[in-house]
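Researcher: Here's a chain I'd like modeled. Treat it as a single chain, no partners, no ligands.
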Amino acid sequence: MKFFWETRKVILLSALIYAIVKCVFFFGFVSQYIEQITLYALIVILTSLGLNVIYGYTGQFSLGHAAFYGIGAYVSAYLTKVFGIENVFAYIPILFMSGAAAGLVGYLIGIPILRLRDDFLAIATLGFGTLVRVFLDNSDRFAEVLGGSRGFVGIPRLTTFELAFLIVVFLILITRNLIFSRYGLFWRCIKSDELASASIGINTFSMKLMAFTYGCFLAGIGGALYANLYTFLHPSNFDILKSIDFLIIVIVGGMGSITGTIYAGLIWVGFIEGLRIVLPAEIVDLRWVFIPLLLIALMMWKPHGLITKSGR
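Model: Modeled as a single isolated chain. Structure tokens:
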């Protein structure tokens, strides 16, 4: 009963937040730039949630999360442009197809690399991320429309606040249900002690593969929303630095915390874009000095992340 009450509270709180933000947008209290940044923050939260499932809950150190983010983005961009999708309702199936494509690649890649652990797994995922980046740089050799190193242009803008908010809340609830299911319990057991988990009958490889595939699926949907928000893609948007961004959000928010990922995602995007607005154009690059200082301060204040209660 408590679980269903908590879910109901999440839905009610989400409805309240949506109403407030929508009113702010409707009455023009913020610029269109802030509206777009709000949408981007939702995308970052969703994608980081996928990495939290992989690393925060299951303990699999991945440095290639941006690769699956990019796969979802390019699949969505290609399908919506080739089929001339202009309707949001027709876009929703493509959104989930993009996530499924990223999840399928994650599943196929996970079969060999998830037999590795710790630093070896990190290096393997980093290598895969580099492989995807190189493929996207040369993708115009396979299909001219993909643009290669010039970038993918002419993508229809289909991502709206209503769609992004609904998708993110829906997937947060699905993820939360998974975390409190037997599978979530198995994931947390594997993170705590994989050998002990195997000794009590948990199929650790299958559970790790499931978590990795689902995390990649969330990243793919995040990438699809990104592609149809900004209408332009470049391979550099999905390099190792983007993977580090998602990793920072998971660690700062608190590994194994959904609420922490939401807070950290908002703080991360708000701080980066806030500095872009506040700092003069000639010194805007100094924000990359302030960002490490923020991270150092946060880690000194909250070394285990903003939220440390697992599952919340």
